[in-house]
Amino acid sequence: MAKVIYFDNNATTKVAPEVFEAMKPFLTDLYGNPSSMHTFGGQVEKYIRHSRESIAGLLGCDSSEIIFTSCGTESDNAAIKGVLEALPEKRKIITTRVEHPAVLATCRQMQTLGYKLVELGVNGEGQIDLNELESQVDDDTAIVTIMYANNETGVIFPIDKIAAIVKAKGAVFHTDAVQAVGKIPLNLDKSNIDLLSLSGHKLHAPKGVGVLYIRKGTRISPFIIGGHQEKSRRAGTENVAGIVALGRAAELAAKEIKQENTKVKKLRDRLENALLINCPDAMLNGDKVNRLPNTTNISFEFIEGEAILLSLDQFGICASSGSACTSGSLEPSHVMRAMGVPFTAAHGSIRFSLSRYNTEEEVDFVIEKMPGIINRLRDISPFVK
Ligand code: PLP
């Protein structure tokens, strides 16, 4: 395969070599079921325990508060539906208009079942109004679910302040931290977060494993019924290899987070500054300051994002577009629309998301190729007179 230059780490990440090594024995020799009575199966249990402790270490919580799931989407669904089921007397859900569909579509499904749903809007920088949030949380509110960091723009919400507001009003607070965990330091011990979702494949573990953190004492119903695994909250024989992998990925993230932040942010800024300077009619989307260190979302006005992606793809460069091609019509993403990004700019928004494995040479290669791509597409754009 031709060389791939991978700037799409908010979509998924490369499995770290250390993580692959750690999980291998559980796909070969150590294939026992951790619930078995015999030593061969039972010995696996301690590796699950170790992984739980590693993840708790990264999040700053107790290992008993970690529940393994299959992905971020499952964790989000479980949090929202589990709380609503446990608190049948409360009928209101609060979220934002910029959530990932794993949250937004789940909340909207609950709305069709009779729940009252409030979707908070955002300003041009992608931030919510905390006063509006405070005025919306009332005695009828079962759960407030607000993401830690946005997958498209990288914008970070002030989650500790948000959680404190929600807590003071007595509602349960869930955060989808799928894009935040492993990229920025978190400390659940010092926060009022009740529930938090994360996903292995966003932090250099494989696909098929996630976590729902459940603070001790949070009222939530079991979400997969069957055996006694995960304290009977999420039954099903454990994905041992995936769980061990996620534990190792959490250890690596915890060890390197500060140095990596600095390195990745430097590369991201080098890319972003050069593109904004060298490509005419380019603008940054979202809060420039409160942002993940690895993400930049730039609009190239009057061009379609898909066309840019296809051109980048010819050079082996992987990125993402803010618009989704649905049934022949190009719809700007719900995040761009919520931020009020003009139509001609929302269409041409491109997300570059970096990781510890990106290099300066790769960044410079994109910087070299982008202006030519943009100028060529502008020349043939139907939006430019
Ligand atoms: N939440 C956010 C913010 C995401 O970015 C994603 C995936 O892109 C998800 C949830 C879903 O995670 P998973 O792919 O593990 O289901």
Structure description:
With 385 residues, the protein is of the alpha/beta class. The protein folds into 2 domains: 5-12 and 257-380, Aspartate Aminotransferase, domain 1 (Alpha-Beta Complex); 17-252, Aspartate Aminotransferase, domain 2 (3-Layer(aba) Sandwich). It is built from 12 helices and 15 strands. The strands form 4 sheets. It has a 7-stranded mixed beta sheet, with helices on both faces. Helix 1 runs antiparallel to helix 8, helix 3 (45-59) runs parallel beside helix 8 (240-278) and helix 9 packs across helix 12 (360-379). The chain is globular. The two termini are 40 Å apart. The site of pyridoxal-5'-phosphate has 13 residues, from helix 4.
Mean pLDDT: 96
Q: Name the ligand types.
A: pyridoxal-5'-phosphate
Neighbour order of strands in the largest sheet: 2-8-7-6-5-3-4
Instruction: Name the CATH class of the largest domain.
Output: Alpha Beta
Helix content: 25-40%
Question: Which fold does the CATH topology of the largest domain refer to?
Answer: Aspartate Aminotransferase, domain 2
Assigned CATH superfamily of the largest domain: Type I PLP-dependent aspartate aminotransferase-like (Major domain)
- Strand count, sense and closure of the main sheet? 7 strands, mixed
User: Which spans have pLDDT < 50 for at least 5 consecutive residues?
Assistant: none
Large-scale geometry: globular
Order of helices and strands: EHHHEHEHEHEHEEEHEEHEEEEHHEH
> What is the structural class?
alpha/beta
State the total count of DSSP E strands.
15
| Tally of structural domains | 2
Q: Please give the radius of gyration in angstroms.
A: 21 Å
- The number of helical segments is 12
How big a fraction of the residues is strand? 15-25%
